[in-house]
Amino acid sequence: MALYLLFESASGYALFHAHGIDEIGQSVDAVRSTVLDLKRFSKAVQLAGFTPFLSAVDALNQCNAISEGIMTDELRNFLELNLPKVKEGKKAKFTVGVMEPKVGSHITEATGIPCQSNDYVQELLRAVRLHFDQFIEQLKPSDLEKAQLGLGHSYSRAKVKFNVNRVDNMVIQAIFLLDTLDKDVNSFSMRVREWYGWHFPELVKIVNDNYLYAKLAKFVVNKSDLSEKDIPALADLIGDEDKAKEIVEAAKASMGQDLSPVDLINVQQFAQRVMNLSEYRKNLYEYLVTKMNDIAPNLTSLIGEMVGARLISHAGSLSNLAKCPASTLQILGAEKALFRALKTRGNTPKYGLIFHSSFIGRASTKNKGRMARYLANKCSIASRIDCYSDMSSSIFGEKLREQVEERLDFYDKGVAPRKNLDVMKAAIDGLTNTEDDDGKENGDASVKKSKKKSKAEANSDAMDVENAATEAETGTEKKKKKKHKLEEPQDVEMQANGDDETPKKKKKKNRDAESVDPKTGTEGKSKKKKKKSKADDDE
Fold this sequence. Notes:
The protein has 539 residues and is mainly α. It folds into three domains: 2-160, Nucleotidyltransferase, domain 5, CATH 3.30.420; 170-285, Helix Hairpins (Orthogonal Bundle), CATH 1.10.287; 296-435, Nop domain (Serum Albumin, Chain A, Domain 1, Orthogonal Bundle), CATH 1.10.246. The chain is 69% helix and 5% strand. It has 26 helices and five strands. It has helices at 28-34, 38-44, 56-67, 73-82, 101-111, 119-130, 132-135, 141-161, 168-197, 203-206, 210-220, 231-238, 241-252, 261-295, 297-303, 305-315, 318-323, 326-330, 335-344, 358-362, 368-388, 395-413, 420-442, 444-497, 503-514, 525-538; strands spanning 2-8, 12-18, 45-52, 94-97, 115-116. It is elongated and about 105 Å long.
């Protein structure tokens, strides 16, 4: 059986005929060693056809189609022109070797051309790629390199540009940075407390907040310089006059050691760095809130910005989170506990990252698992709405949050929640109402035109209704006339026979008459049975 090799280069499609190679008995290592020699390879493989791409845009489109496993019309025409024709009802006496199995399966389904993709074919195609510029005389090696470089840049640029997950990357990076900042701010604030605690140890018990402690360490610097004049400034920093007075009194009777001016300057600078980090952390959190409201408004309104961002970052993207079933989303973040439970045959975890939600914290211990399962179900719905809907609105997320609140009340107090169908109908009605309000604000002129059209349509509908009513009346009159015509001959026959009885009575008489046979003159079976029963009674 003849073997043809389809090669997709940056400059066009090429088809090679491998006529001097026998696949039977050939190992991959033997082929790999022989294909490096151009003289031997050119005798075994010859160029059967080549079609160049029309432009760089055409090359990019063909490359995208090949990467997705789709056969384009240009590739189909090229194969039908250069491959030998197969008669109807007969099998092809050749096969086409391709690099991508998906492309081969699509070619076979669409055209019926048999394709194969194995290690042997891939080694031959690697050799074709190695010696490709030697088979086409008009193609220079420099031109081929330029085409490969340009197509590679445009393909990668298009992939980055049309990446579905590119917006989610900002949220993923922001939540990772927030987590690291929390750790860094905590460790740095503890270092400030230890460092400044040698000089003013009583301040740790008075002020618990790390940010306020760093502020006070920068403001006070030397405890011996504090006096009652500094109480208003301290009160402005802390927001409490009593604590400000307590700080001044503690500074007077402090047991801490004195530090040199250089050490105090270093402590002051480090406290300023901690303050800057904490302020940057606040700004980053606000940025994360705005991004989450833009990307996943329903998930944000349901479960919060932080938990929603952690779910997206753990899944990899919003589309990956939308593809996850509710059971996977429920234990997302507890993979170690899950595999440990499967290995030891213990109890599997009930929740992962969802545990940080306020709903599970509010639920009782026996209902935490139920609440996690229900919340994961609603989170999967919200993520799918955010991922696949064209409009960005948080109406569905708010309604889903109301459902979770109702489910909490049902577990605690026994109050029956609303049905899911009713809640979704209310959400759709609210969404349509918002769209109508936007339409009223934007297009008053279009509303007037639509009113005129509706009036005209109403008039035409009224005319149609009147015509239909008249047609129905005429049809009923015709039917009545037909009925009268059918009933008249029956009445005439009844009068001719002189029978005043109803049809039912007539049927009964006919039955009695039929009970006597006209030929034999004997009575029917029913009368004989009646006589037998009377005789038995007399006996």
